[in-house]
Amino acid sequence: MKRMATIKKFIDIGANLTDEMYQGIYHGSKKHEPDLDKVLNRSWSAGMDKMIITGGSLLDSKKAIELSRTDSRLFSTVGCHPTRCNDFVQDSDTYLNDLRALIKENRDKVVAIGECGLDYERLHFCEKDVQLKYFELQLQLSNEFQLPLFLHCRAAADDLVEILSRNKEIIVGGVVHSFDGSQEALEKILELDLYIGINGCSLRTKENLEVAAKIPQDRLMIETDCPWCEVKPTHPGYAHVLTKFPSVKKEKYSVESNNQVKGRNEPVNIVQVLEVLSAIRKENIDELAEAIYNNTNKLFFSNKLN
């Protein structure tokens, strides 16, 4: 592995650490022993300061909180992903109250409401009207608990902005994570004083890079969205990646090795997102890292002991 000269401090705002891949299971088939401890240790030793585990449903959020209780540096979101909003349909009051109770009982670990939002690229999982209704329903939790939003937006920026604008008085800030929208979408989101989260999927195209280069530094955050959204060699920004890690196919992976599983993203890879952003924005990497770290602490941890 080629290491950077300076260890920087990172906060991964979107880590799907409850995913089965970290238990060695891929598409229902076990390929290796669980290695989440190894994955976490790699990130801690490379400058990771905190991680926010993504909750995408009531059950997911419970698992995320349970995992966060194993380490003081792990935190969680609580909410329902747009593609899972059918979970609300049978009894929306009970589902919302269950989310509410989970937050109330775990105030020390829950740092955001989400992952919630809109996804018009995957309407086969949940139709638009259901997404719209139950995204808006979750916003009251932001006001009630004074917690920011961890937002998902795919091909739905206009409707997302409209709902957030209409509810601006009850929203306590937030971040649109895994952002891959247009310059126009960026400007509309920034007008709402929201932050923008960037990962490998945010940097897949030349247009993505042009938009990412224009995000104000004081509105920028980074993430991995692991085990997905790595910076791939086919991406236009990959030429700017300086820190590379050895990887092997999952069938040949050994937990005892210091390899990564090929195609499975890890929190430690957050440094690659920073490196691409530093290059395309022509900004000093240490100063950019510090600004992003401060932005993240300000939104999620200002009311908690750091």
Descriptive notes:
This protein is of the alpha/beta class and 306 residues long. Helices cover 37% and strands 17% of the residues. It has an 8-stranded parallel β-sheet, sandwiched between helices. A two-stranded antiparallel sheet has the order 2-3. A two-stranded parallel ribbon has the order 11-12. The longest helix is centred in the middle third of the chain and has 18 residues, at 128-145. It is globular, with a radius of gyration of 18 Å. The two termini are 30 Å apart. The model is unreliable at 1-5 (pLDDT under 50).
Q: N-to-C terminal Cα separation, in Å?
A: 30 Å
Instruction: List the strand order in the largest sheet.
Output: 1-4-5-6-7-8-9-10
Order of helices and strands: EEEHEHEHHEHEHEHEHEEEHH
Number of strands: 12
Q: Output the number of helix runs.
A: 10
Low-pLDDT runs = 1-5
Helix fraction by DSSP (H/I, runs of at least 4): 25-40%
The fraction of residues in strands falls at 15-25%
- Protein structure class: alpha/beta
Keyphrases for this structure?
306 residues; alpha/beta; eight-stranded parallel β-sheet; two-stranded antiparallel sheet; globular
Short note summarizing the structure:
Helix content is 37%, strand content 17%. By secondary structure, it is of the alpha/beta class.
Q: What are the SSEs and their pairings?
A:
Layout: E1 10-15, E2 25-26, E3 29-30, H1 36-45, E4 48-53, H2 58-68, E5 74-78, H3 86-89, H4 92-105, E6 110-119, H5 128-145, E7 149-154, H6 157-166, E8 174-176, H7 183-191, E9 195-198, H8 206-212, E10 220-222, E11 247-248, E12 260-261, H9 270-281, H10 285-301
Parallel strand pairs: 1-4, 4-5, 5-6, 6-7, 7-8, 8-9, 9-10, 11-12
Antiparallel strand pairs: 2-3
